[in-house]
Predict the structure.
Amino acid sequence: MSTLKEKFVEKAKTLRAEVKDILAKHGNMKIADVTLAQAYGGMRDIKCMVWEPSALDPVEGIRFRGMSIPELREALPKIKGGEEPLPEALFYLLLIGEVPTAAETAEVTKEWRSRERLPDHVKKTLDALPVDCHPMTQFSIGINAMQTESIFAKKYRDGLAKTDLWDPMYEDSMNLLASLPLLAAYIYRRSYKGGVHIPPGPKDLDWSANFAHMLGYTDPQFAELLRLYLVLHADHEGGNVSAHTIHLVGSALSDAYLALAAGMNGLAGPLHGLANQEVLRWIMAVQAELGGGVPSKEVLHKYVWDTLNSGQVVPGYGHAVLRKTDPRYTAQREFALKHMPKDELFQIVAMLYDVVPPVLLEQGKAKDPWPNVDAHSGVLLVHYGMKEYDYYTVLFGVSRAMGTLAHLVWARAMGMPLERPKSVTTGWVKKQIAAAPPA
Ligand code: AMX
């Protein structure tokens, strides 16, 4: 058994016992009251699910197993001479709750590289789609097509005990994580590079370097960017659309492939992960209007107001939970300042940071006027030549698989039940109001 799996078995045993004890002693403790505004308003802030890999603070931003983004960038193992953490190390942290050593990280890299596989029928399924089919649609279909490989589905059919279901979920998750870069690269090359595919590289390449290689990018700095990108987008606690969907679908004992594909359909929404492509499209539109170059702050100010006045949202700004600049934005800004300070698009993104929040505050609707993760990622990718912004959410999806699959393995290990909240009708609401004592 690998170190990762062995450690997981140990940790799961402890947490199962702890939670059993907590529920026996405090199961009736109230942790949330739900208002009508919350029931009608997208369930904001209702504490009603458990998610171990990460937690989101409205002001501080995300913490992966208690660690902030700057802490992670410092502490997680890197490649020799590299500056950005290895996503494999982050996955270890998300699953186990401990920072891995370089050797433990290398073991994950080796395991993922040995498990990578894209079955022929998945390629044929993708090839049957129009070449201009949105990459996220291809990604979701591709993951569903890979479900033929599910060990969980086979074991369940054979009659596996509930307590053992985490094991095939772990195996599926490891196989999926190993193979997602192959699927994602296949989609990129068929959509934008004439279907000229690049097979996986030498086995000593780490997960991100191999992904960069299959996408067709040879600049080692692009692989560094990919490492950072894949780390930053990996998890954002359990309530966001993609994570929550993956949890919900997984709770029906659907396997990792079915659950992940469902979540990717949510990530493909413009209010969620698709915002990263929308940001680039929006920035390029203002640049095109001016015939290129960096617009003045006055021009950007008018552009932001025009966007709002036409009833659209400013992509990359605002958040359902965050109330300060997203630390994932800040990490990407630091990368840009180090590697591309003079890049024109980066300069526009930096100017938007000064222009957008005051406008959103003046408009007075958005609770969070600050940039989120999607405000910055596109310009970094364009700098290294990846201009096909329709593709960006696929990269987000490859990364998001890490946190959500770590959660699914935990969900099975903890025996988390079918999720089934209660809905009500407006008729029921009216009756409650009528029956309530006068205020
Ligand atoms: N531009 C314009 N209006 C905005 C806005 C923005 N960036 N952010 C919020 N608002 C508006 C909302 O549309 C809402 O308007 P309404 O009252 O007319 O319906 C009002 O402000 C209140 O919204 P909120 O409570 O502050 O936000 P929310 O929790 O309802 O939505 C989010 C959060 C992210 C969907 C929203 O901020 C938004 O649409 N942002 C732009 C899209 C984006 O960047 N999404 C990516 C988020 C990160 C991610 O998931 N990857």
